[in-house]
Automatic annotation (TrEMBL):
<feature type="transmembrane region" description="Helical">
    <location>
        <begin position="358"/>
        <end position="375"/>
    </location>
</feature>
<feature type="transmembrane region" description="Helical">
    <location>
        <begin position="295"/>
        <end position="312"/>
    </location>
</feature>
<dbReference type="GO" id="GO:0005886">
    <property type="term" value="C:plasma membrane"/>
</dbReference>
<keyword id="KW-1003">Cell membrane</keyword>
<dbReference type="InterPro" id="IPR001640">
    <property type="entry name" value="Lgt"/>
</dbReference>
<dbReference type="Pfam" id="PF01790">
    <property type="entry name" value="LGT"/>
</dbReference>
<feature type="transmembrane region" description="Helical">
    <location>
        <begin position="20"/>
        <end position="39"/>
    </location>
</feature>
<dbReference type="GO" id="GO:0042158">
    <property type="term" value="P:lipoprotein biosynthetic process"/>
</dbReference>
<keyword id="KW-1133">Transmembrane helix</keyword>
<dbReference type="GO" id="GO:0008961">
    <property type="term" value="F:phosphatidylglycerol-prolipoprotein diacylglyceryl transferase activity"/>
</dbReference>
<feature type="transmembrane region" description="Helical">
    <location>
        <begin position="183"/>
        <end position="206"/>
    </location>
</feature>
<protein>
    <submittedName>
        <fullName>Diacylglyceryl transferase</fullName>
    </submittedName>
</protein>
<feature type="transmembrane region" description="Helical">
    <location>
        <begin position="70"/>
        <end position="89"/>
    </location>
</feature>
<keyword id="KW-0808">Transferase</keyword>
<comment type="similarity">
    <text>Belongs to the Lgt family.</text>
</comment>
<keyword id="KW-0472">Membrane</keyword>
<keyword id="KW-0812">Transmembrane</keyword>
Length: 384
């Protein structure tokens, strides 16, 4: 396993480069890149078809930087400098435990003040370049795809919060023991929490800019499936605990690699299992029994589902249907993977189930209802 990028580089090239990047975080970032690409492609396609339309906005140009802009840039610069300079001066600690460095109150005051001044000066100079003796108001055209930068920030912030909240609800006993650590930890993220909260944030931005919710949901279906596939690569490579139940069964095919059938996740970031003899460092545990590597199964299945959605997207003419199909495929995939995946179970009326099984079932039902709604309102949306 490769808990950090340094482990990955060491495995590939045999070099030891201490870097403060964990593998899971890198693939989460790549998942956003993949989603950004797919969303942008769909927004441009739907605008070209006349389904989505650019909006007009009045902006004032030629004004000097306002006090609010200077203060906000200075504040942002202070936070970066306060943490960045401290991290560089304590690089070994940063590499070994980036989370503690970033989330603690420790920092470098001089570094913070220096970057605060630099960012404020930068904001002033950028505005000064286009300053006019008499500022004027102009009308600008904003295309739907140009909203993606704003959407991705909102999706990242609210998606992370949602993923943390749902994960802590799923592991309530651990959360009660250490609520602060549970909320601030970078590990332990639930996909459905991120999907629900991040998706709601994107819908909010879209509505504010004249994009109807069903249109935005349709845009997001393929991209979210692609992002999920990419993100699960990070889960597998880092060994973050999203693996399956023990698998002691013999391989059904001799050509099948062991790691694709049953895997012990050595050096996993969850630090679960037994200590690896001779291993020194933070990630030295390996599962006592091999388990189903469910993250890699989801990588493959989700990517295939993305290709299917990407292929059929141009044939679907009814608003809401694409997203309904996405919800149904997502729900079926996750429901069945839960059958061989380790997870906390709840029992209601004698029926055991996991949080993901419940939500995936609800998503499938919601997707089915959305498809039915789209078909029943075909005439209403004839000009889709």
């Amino acid at each position: 396993m490769f808990p950090t990028v340094s482990h990955f580089l060491s495995y590939l090239f045999g070099i030891d480069v201490p870097l403060p990047f964990n593998t899971f975080g890198v693939f989460v970032a790549l998942a956003f890149v993949g989603g950004y690409w797919a969303f942008t492609k769909e927004l441009k396609r739907k605008e070209a078809l006349g389904i989505l339309h650019p909006t007009k906005r009045n902006v004032v140009i030629g004004e000097p930087a306002s006090t609010l802009e200077l203060v906000s840039n200075a504040f942002f610069g202070f936070l970066i400098g306060y943490k960045l300079i401290y991290a560089l001066l304590n690089y070994k600690l940063f590499v070994s435990d980036a989370q503690t460095v970033l989330l603690s109150t420790k920092g470098n005051l001089l570094g913070g003040l220096a970057l605060a001044a630099l960012f404020a000066y930068w904001a002033h100079k950028e505005k000064d370049k286009v300053k006019l003796s008499k500022p004027k108001t102009v009308e600008v055209t904003v295309h739907p795809y140009e909203l993606m930068s704003n959407m991705i920030v909102w999706a990242a912030v609210w998606g992370f919060l949602g993923a943390k909240i749902f994960d802590n609800l799923e592991h309530w006993d651990s959360f009660i023991k250490d609520p602060i650590g549970g909320l601030l930890s970078f590990s332990g993220l639930t996909f459905y929490g991120g999907l629900i909260c991040g998706g709601a944030a994107v819908i909010y931005i879209a509505r504010k800019n004249g994009i109807k919710p069903l249109h935005m949901l349709d845009v997001g279906g393929p991209g979210m499936m692609l992002a999920y596939s990419i993100g699960r690569i990070g889960c597998h490579l880092s060994g973050d605990g999203d693996w399956g139940i023990p698998n002691l069964n013999p391989k059904p095919f001799t050509w099948l690699p062991d790691w694709l059938w049953a895997y012990t996740y050595p050096n996993n970031v969850a630090n679960e299992g037994n200590h690896i003899a001779g291993c020194i460092g933070k990630y030295c545990n390996e599962l006592a029994q091999p388990v189903y590597p469910t993250p890699i199964y989801e990588v493959i299945i989700a990517f295939i589902l993305f290709l299917i959605l990407w292929k059929i997207r141009t044939r679907i003419k009814l608003p809401g249907m694409m997203f309904g199909i996405y919800l149904m495929l997502n729900g079926v995939e996750r429901f069945f993977i839960e059958l061989i995946r380790v997870n906390s179970k709840y029992t209601v009326a004698g029926i055991p189930f996991t949080q993901a099984e419940l939500i995936s079932s609800l998503l499938f039902i919601a997707g089915l209802l959305l498809v039915i709604y789209s078909i029943k309102n075909k005439e209403k949306h004839a000009n889709y």
